């Protein structure tokens, strides 16, 4: 397994909808294994293929439920159903999230408290997971990556302006930038 470089906001692969996976082969299995390794090294709770420069509809996740139950897996060619989104500004203490493609920054973002993700695993077996709270947030965040959207694109003011300033001050926002977990120490 290999730790892969994580693309930083501005790279076109992060801002373009990913293509469906059609070949369930050794290359896909290697990509998923490398994504787990990269996510763990970052460290992160989720990682989508576009974040490592691969425009495919696949993401991995690793999250311990509130009761400590570990949840780790892969979802390929996912669909996402959401519960009601409560209107209003997000709470800065309880609704802030980060992103490995906007490393080291955290901003509040309102998300639905319920999500149902459906897709397949590496063996093309159906995967259906219902999630609430932070687990639901992870699925929404990773699904957005597959559609070419970063969480920073969804921010409300004043956080959108703050994110734009942080991106500018870090010299991000253009193609070709990445970081390598374990070497660059830029966690999201």
Q: What structural keywords apply?
A:
3 helices; two-stranded antiparallel ribbon; 188 residues; alpha+beta; Peptide Deformylase; single chain; five-stranded antiparallel β-sheet; 9 strands
* CATH top level assignment: Alpha Beta
Question: What is the overall shape?
Answer: globular
Q: If classified by CATH, what would the architecture be?
A: Alpha-Beta Complex
* Annotated CATH homologous superfamily: Peptide deformylase
Termini separation = 22 Å
Specify the number of helices: 3
| H/E topology pattern | EHEEEEEEEHHE
Q: Tell me the major beta sheet.
A: 5 strands, antiparallel
What is the CATH third-level topology name? Peptide Deformylase
Structural class: alpha+beta
As residue ranges, the low-confidence spans are none
The amount of helix comes to 10-25%
Mean pLDDT: 95
Q: What integer value in Å does the Rg equal? A: 16 Å
Find the count of extended strands (DSSP E, 2+ residues). 9
What portion of residues belong to β-strands? 25-35%
Numbering strands along the chain, what is their spatial order in the largest sheet?
2-3-4-7-8
Question: Number of folding domains?
Answer: 1
Describe this structure in words.
The structure is a single chain. The protein is of the alpha+beta class and 188 residues long. 22% of the residues lie in helices and 28% in strands. It has helices spanning 26-41, 133-146, 159-169; strands spanning 6-7, 46-48, 58-64, 70-82, 96-99, 102-108, 114-120, 126-132, 178-179. The strands form three sheets. A five-stranded antiparallel sheet has the order 2-3-4-7-8. A two-stranded antiparallel sheet has the order 1-9. Strands 5-6 form a two-stranded antiparallel sheet. It is globular, with a radius of gyration of 16 Å.
């Amino acid at each position: 397994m290999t730790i892969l470089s994580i693309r930083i906001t501005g790279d076109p692969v992060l801002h373009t909808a990913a293509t469906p996976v059609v070949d369930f082969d050794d290359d896909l299995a290697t990509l998923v294994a490398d994504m787990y390794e990269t996510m763990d090294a970052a460290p992160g709770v989720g990682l989508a293929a576009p974040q490592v420069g691969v425009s495919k509809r696949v993401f991995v996740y690793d999250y311990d439920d509130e009761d400590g139950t570990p949840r780790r897996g892969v979802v390929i060619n996912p669909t996402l159903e959401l519960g009601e989104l409560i209107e209003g500004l997000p709470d800065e203490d309880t609704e802030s999230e980060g992103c490995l493609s906007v490393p080291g920054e955290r901003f509040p973002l309102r998300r639905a408290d319920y999500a149902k993700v459906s897709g397949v695993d590496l063996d093309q077996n159906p995967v259906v997971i219902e999630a609430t709270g932070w687990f639901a947030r992870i699925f929404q965040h990773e699904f957005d990556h597959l559609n070419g959207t970063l969480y920073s694109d969804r921010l409300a003011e004043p956080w959108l302006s703050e994110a734009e300033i942080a991106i500018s001050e870090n010299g991000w926002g253009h193609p070709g930038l990445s970081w390598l977990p374990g070497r660059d120490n830029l966690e999201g």
